[in-house]
C-alpha cells in the first residue's frame, strides 16, 4: 500500500516520488496547500472507496498517517 | 478594517517578521495563530509561492489561490447551489477562497466542514484579484 499511496501523491500533486517516503510530512516537507490536500483526499477516497470527513483531514499529516487511516477504514 | 501585505515564498513567521510584527505567537486548539500580547488579529495564506498576510482589528480569515479548476473536488467541497454556479476556473477559484477564508476566520479551518459553508449566502467576504491570484478576506 505504501507504494500505491506514494504514487497517488506523486500523480495528484505533481511531486517526484523520490521525495516521498513513509515519514514525509505533506505540509512541512512538501509544502502541500489546503486545496491540494483536499484534491489528494478525494483521489484517495476514489481509489479506496472510502469517505474521509473534513474533520479527519487535519490528522493526515504524513504518508504513514494516510496508510494507517486507510487500513482502519476500508 | 484590514490591511494586506504580500511576500514571495515566505512562511507565516517570515512574513510577520518582514513587516515588523514581532510579537510572540500562540495557537488555538485548531492551530490558528494569534499574537500573544497584541489585540490585533492576523491570518496568513500561501499559494504557488505567493504569501499574503492580513492584519485586522477583528477576527479575520484570508485565503489566496492561484487560478485553478479542480473538477474532482467540487462534490467534496460545494453545496448543490455552489456547484451549479461554477462555470469556469474563475468561479471555482472564487468559491474556494471564499470558503477557506470563512473557515479560517472561524478559527477551525477545513475541519469545520467545507460543504457546511454556503458561500453564496455569506456577505462578510471580500474577494480581490491580484495578477492570476484570487484573495478572499473574511471579517467577523
Description:
The complex is a heterodimer of chains A (74) and B (140). Chain A contains five helices and no strands. Chain A is an all-alpha fold and 74 residues long. Chain A has a single domain, classed as Non-ribosomal Peptide Synthetase Peptidyl Carrier Protein, Chain A. The mean pLDDT of chain A is 94. The radius of gyration of chain B is 15 Å and the shape is globular. In chain B, the strands form three sheets. Chain B has a three-stranded antiparallel beta sheet, covered by helices on one side. Chain B has a single domain, classed as Ribosomal Protein L22, Chain A (Alpha-Beta Complex). Chain B is built from four helices and eight strands; from the N terminus they run βαβββββαααββ. The N and C termini of chain B lie close together (11 Å). Chains A and B meet through α3 and α4 of A and loops of B.
Quick tags:
heterodimer, A: 74 residues, mainly alpha, Non-ribosomal Peptide Synthetase Peptidyl Carrier Protein, Chain A, 5 helices, 64% helix, globular, B: 140 residues, Ribosomal Protein L22, Chain A, three-stranded antiparallel sheet, 4 helices, 34% strand
Topology:
The complex is a heterodimer of chains A (74) and B (140).
Chain A: H1 2-13, H2 26-30, H3 34-48, H4 54-57, H5 63-73
Helix pairs in contact in A: 1-3
Chain B: E1 2-8, H1 12-18, E2 25-27, E3 33-35, E4 41-47, E5 50-56, E6 60-66, H2 74-77, H3 80-85, H4 89-106, E7 125-130, E8 133-139
Antiparallel strand pairs in B: 1-5, 2-3, 4-5, 6-8, 7-8
Amino acid at each position: 500500500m505504501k507504494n500505491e499511496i506514494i504514487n497517488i501523491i506523486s500523480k495528484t500533486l505533481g511531486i517526484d516520488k523520490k521525495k516521498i517516503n513513509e515519514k514525509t510530512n505533506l505540509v512541512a516537507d512538501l509544502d502541500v496547500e489546503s486545496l491540494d490536500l483536499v484534491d489528494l483526499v478525494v483521489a484517495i477516497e476514489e481509489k479506496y472507496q472510502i469517505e474521509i470527513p473534513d474533520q479527519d483531514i487535519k490528522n493526515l499529516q504524513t504518508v504513514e498517517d494516510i496508510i494507517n487511516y486507510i487500513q482502519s477504514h476500508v | 478594517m484590514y490591511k494586506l501585505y504580500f511576500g514571495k515564498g515566505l512562511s507565516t513567521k517570515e512574513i510577520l517578521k518582514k513587516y515588523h510584527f514581532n510579537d510572540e505567537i500562540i495557537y488555538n486548539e485548531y492551530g490558528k495563530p494569534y499574537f500573544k500580547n497584541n489585540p490585533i488579529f492576523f491570518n496568513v495564506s500561501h499559494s504557488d509561492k505567493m504569501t499574503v498576510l492580513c492584519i485586522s482589528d477583528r477576527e479575520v480569515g484570508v485565503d489566496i489561490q492561484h487560478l485553478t479548476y479542480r473538477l474532482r473536488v467540487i462534490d467534496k467541497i460545494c453545496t448543490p447551489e455552489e456547484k451549479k454556479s461554477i462555470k469556469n476556473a474563475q468561479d471555482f477559484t472564487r468559491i474556494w477562497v471564499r470558503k477557506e477564508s470563512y473557515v479560517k476566520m472561524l478559527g477551525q479551518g477545513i475541519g469545520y466542514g467545507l460543504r457546511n459553508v454556503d458561500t453564496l449566502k455569506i456577505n462578510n467576504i471580500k474577494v480581490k484579484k491580484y495578477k492570476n491570484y484570487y484573495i478572499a478576506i473574511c471579517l467577523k
